[in-house]
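[[Encoded backbone]]
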Amino acid sequence: MSRFVRVGGVAHHVVVEGSGPVCVLSAGLAMCWFDWDPVVRLLAPHRTVVRFDRPGHGLSAPAAVPPSAAGEAHRIAGVLDALGLPGPATVVGHSIAGFHAEAHARLYPARTAGVVLVDSSVEDLALRSSFVEASRDALRALAGRLASEGFGELPVIVGYLDRSERDRPRLGRPAGSPENARRAGVRLSRPTGGDPAPAALVRSCYATTRVLRGALLENTHYRAVAAELLALRERFPLPRDLPVTVLAAPDGSARRDRRQRTLARRLGARYEAVEPSGHLMMLDRPDAVARAALRTGGQDEA
């Protein structure tokens, strides 16, 4: 069931399906609720599945304040409160939302049944706020330039901006409409196959600058959020018995694999290399994501 709830004064688009223990799905940069469809089909018979669009993403309203690690943890809890689902919940975070899922587990341990990190962002570099401000200005200028050169209103490559700088693939140029830009981005992030999302849904979310602005806002605060998460790790330990799974999509990069394994060790998590899969694992291997969510949430796959 699709609805809107207000969290922090912002209207959030939320979709709730299924029954049973609660599982929250939070997507990566510039992605939407419907990108979880293949996973939801497998989870809904066993879980109450909650999907929500962060501010500026999907159908949600623009952000009222810049993102932060604690703020995104509070957002997850706020969405569940607005739905009357206090938890505990399994939180599944893809890419940059892996930061948010971990922060929620640290700040709301009693409300967290488990955590699944789906090819999560991993960033140990804490940069000064002055760099973040400079990056924001530079990216705003870049967005305007790309738009003027034919990228339409969405010069965002899915799975590109929310990776660490050294891990980013070469930026290709999607031609034509925002819908085509989205589809080109998805193709870049998958080893095989294109974008399975219906054209009407893509157009409804990507036809304005709202998603562009939301993605740029999150990207410019990426390392500040990462630095805050590092601080939260020092102050708020994870419960010893909390099940955590790190799902990694190996891309042939030893450095990326090493960072994902290091993340799993740091969190005391189960590590799984999911092959074949690209960064958009929810589209490439929904079975692996659903299986990890069911297992991590304390109930074996039915």
The first helix runs from residue 37 to 43.
